[in-house]
Design brief:
The protein is an alpha+beta fold. 18% of the residues lie in helices and 26% in strands. Strands 7, 8, 9, 10, 11, 12, 13, 14 and 15 form a nine-stranded mixed β-sheet that branches. Strands 3-2-5-6 form a four-stranded antiparallel β-sheet. The chain has a two-stranded antiparallel ribbon with strand order 1-4. The mean pLDDT is 95.
């Protein structure tokens, strides 16, 4: 049960002050009946605004094909962001819709967005070891033995306290790599290759756990059920 004015404001409909005006104006019903008390508590499932049910009152979980050129930060000083792809009402929600981990501005691929902070923590925790698969093109052929080095879990990147967790490298062409990571250090893929003298020219994330992009075009997203990632574990096996 949540206060009507707070509920509408938190779901991005309007400001709390406007929500009070909307209730007073009779635009909001609970269980089919108009209410005049904006402080009344209601079950979100029972609330209608202008006759329509509330927009995802329980939360959002989205799978986005992140295009190159957008950042995952909400800070507008960092440039255009992935949230600009979403409906405006979703961008005004509180808690904010945020990304599950980040992809760099110059990286494309599978990115989850959600307003469920508990889910963000769970899916980004190295403890859960959610495998993420990246496709990278390199400026040169990597040195021999790179797969063994990445798999060993001993690679120490500058400025990091712990070495990189074991990662699986598969070369799919002489300068094209598929790398599976279970953690997400800052610019990790680029820095792992750079530590061995290779520059990553293009980077794309093709999988997150069992999830893939399918035929989603860059900039498109689809919803996932909020319980897609069951509470007890990391990755569903479907
Ligand atoms: N590693 C990177 O270097 N960049 C990303 O966006 C993701 C992983």
């Amino acid at each position: 049960m949540r206060r009507l004015d707070q509920l509408l404001a938190n779901l991005g409909y309007c400001s709390r002050r406007e929500a009070r005006d909307w209730v007073r104006a009779g635009r909001v019903t609970v269980g089919g009946r108009a209410v005049s008390d904006f402080g009344a508590k209601a079950d979100p499932a029972e609330v209608r605004v202008d006759g329509a049910p509330l927009d995802h009152p329980d939360g959002l979980l989205l799978l986005l094909h992140k295009p190159i050129g957008l950042v995952c930060s909400h800070d507008e000083r960092e440039g255009p962001n992935v949230y600009s792809l979403l409906p405006e009402r979703w961008r005004r929600r509180n808690p904010l819709v945020t990304s599950v981990g980040r992809l760099d501005k110059d990286t494309s691929g599978l990115l989850l967005l959600t307003d469920q902070s508990e889910l963000v923590h769970r899916l980004t925790s190295p403890k859960h070891k959610v495998p993420k698969i990246y496709q990278a093109t390199l400026d040169r052929e990597p040195p021999a033995g790179l797969a063994g080095l990445f798999a060993a879990g001993t690679l120490q990147l500058d400025g990091e306290k712990a070495p990189c967790a074991p990662a699986v490298l598969r070369m799919t062409a002489p300068r094209t790599a598929e790398l599976t990571l279970t953690e997400g250090k800052y610019h990790q893929v680029r820095r792992m290759f750079a530590s061995q003298g290779c520059t990553v020219l293009t980077l794309h994330r093709s999988r997150f756990g069992e999830l893939q992009l399918g035929d989603l075009a860059p900039g498109q997203w689809h919803e996932l059920p909020l319980d897609y990632f069951s509470a007890d574990g990391a990755v569903p096996h479907r």
